[in-house]
Specification:
GO terms for molecular function: DNA binding. This protein is an alpha+beta fold. 42% of the residues lie in helices and 22% in strands. It has a seven-stranded antiparallel β-sheet. A six-stranded mixed β-sheet has the order 12-11-8-9-10-16, sandwiched between helices. The longest helix is centred in the N-terminal third of the chain and has 27 residues.
């Protein structure tokens, strides 16, 4: 059994001025303590929370004696995290400052500083007593609650001065049981699609990532050319326009939905997911011999590891095992004869030089991933040899999957949020 944690951001209802002013004063004291602790930690090279707390806890308590004592504890946690990150960047030469700057403050809360009241209210302790705050949960929050997730003891809070609200970062946890693997579900991640092999049938999900990347590439280039000529390279209006682009959110949406489909399929069949072991920065190896700037940009923005990370995160929620295999030549060798495939004119269809079989590039990659997973751990999963894979010389044989079933993006990208039946949600059961 494994413990899985997720963070959900929930906004509060507008607060009365008296309550919000108390939180503003709390934020000011919290910021002052964090700044002092970060400066001390960086000057003395302290990366450990325990060491920082042992040196500065009593001093922080004397600085604000009217503040609950656990704020001195959580500020040490916050400051040690900031100092550790800054010292790591400084060691790599990625920062120009001698000391970090505390720009934004997110107040860390432990189980002594906040208490949940049901699912829609919380209490936060300040120097002026406890403050009750009403939350405005969204659909994602209720989705987690309806699936059995529970609130953890830690949380974080940030002030929204413009709307007189607070933004609460809630941590939800769940105990997940891991099942015994009955088979494997290989997944091949490409620039413009994700291909899976389910019981000998290859399914290709079109992601449209190439069109998305190139569209924003030309859009950013047009904005830069226009405003650099009018206002200069460091113009504020150009930064504001570029900041409003939604490329990252659209990519996250694609990755999350495709990962959800893959993991749910593996969970229903009690399979383990097989993916390529690409390393931390696979794009650096892919662009070594690429000179075209646009192609290099596409390779970096294709986010191969981003899709794999989304699959890994979703797999933890369902207790699905993830198996990593060597990605070398997975799309270049015939799974039947272990012979090279001949591709012509940039086509994704290749022919085995030994047996003459015709293979789609993404399909042969999934078959090779499956074979390497079976040979790697010696499990009792069903073998792809025999009736599930045609060994004859006839192209597109009757028992071999040479061409994938294509699923367009508008088909698989649809997603139902909350249940259609009103009584099936937790909040409506509470109302009754």
């Amino acid at each position: 059994m494994a413990r899985v944690a997720r963070t959900v951001i929930v906004r509060s209802a507008p607060l009365p001025r008296k309550k919000f002013n108390a939180l503003v004063e709390l934020e000011g004291m919290y910021r002052n303590m964090v700044e002092q602790l970060v400066m001390h930690a960086v000057r003395n090279g302290i990366r450990s929370f325990i060491r920082l707390k042992a040196l500065k806890y009593r001093e922080m308590r004397k600085l604000y004696p009217h503040l609950p004592s656990h704020y001195a504890y959580t500020t040490c946690q916050d400051a040690s995290t900031r100092a550790k990150s800054f010292l790591r960047l400084k060691k790599r030469g990625l920062t120009r400052r001698e000391h970090p700057e505390v720009r934004s403050v997110v107040i860390w809360l432990d189980d002594h500083l906040w208490k949940p009241i049901g699912l829609t209210f919380i209490r936060i302790v300040t120097h002026k007593g406890w403050i009750k705050v009403e939350l405005e949960p969204h659909r994602q929050y209720w989705r987690y609650v309806n699936r059995g997730w529970r609130l953890a003891s830690e949380a974080k809070m940030k002030l929204d001065r413009k709307n007189r609200r607070i933004i609460v970062y809630l941590t939800l946890v769940k105990e997940v049981d891991e099942y015994k693997t009955r088979g494997y579900l290989p997944v091949d991640v490409n620039e413009n699609n994700v291909t899976i092999l389910v019981d000998g049938a290859a399914i290709l999900f079109e992601t449209g990532m190439r069109k998305l990347v190139l569209g924003y590439y030309y859009r950013r280039k047009k904005v830069q050319q226009k405003y650099d000529e009018l206002y200069g390279v460091k113009s504020r209006i150009k930064r504001m326009i570029l900041r409003k682009l939604r490329e990252r959110k659209k990519k996250q949406d694609v990755r999350g939905k495709i990962a959800n489909i893959i993991v749910r399929t593996a969970y229903e069949k009690q399979y383990a997911i097989v993916i390529e072991e690409l390393g931390k920065r696979p794009a650096n190896n892919m662009i070594r011999k690429v000179k075209d700037k646009q192609l290099r940009h596409r390779i970096f923005q294709a986010s191969f590891r981003g899709v794999q990370r989304a699959i890994e995160e979703k797999a933890r929620e369902y207790g699905v095992q993830v198996v990593y295999v060597n990605p070398k030549n997975t799309s270049r060798l015939c799974p039947l004869h272990n012979a090279p495939l001949a591709y012509s004119n940039g086509s994704r269809g290749g022919r085995c030089r030994k047996g003459g079989e015709q293979w789609h590039r993404d399909v042969v990659a999934t078959w090779n991933l499956l074979l390497r997973a079976l040979r790697g751990d010696g499990s009792a999963a069903p073998s792809p040899a025999g009736p599930t894979l045609d060994g004859g010389r006839v192209p597109f044989g009757p028992t071999a999957t040479h061409e994938p079933t294509r699923v367009p993006k508008p088909v698989w990208a649809r997603w139902n949020t909350l249940p259609q039946i009103q009584n099936s949600t937790t909040i409506n059961r509470m109302k009754r």
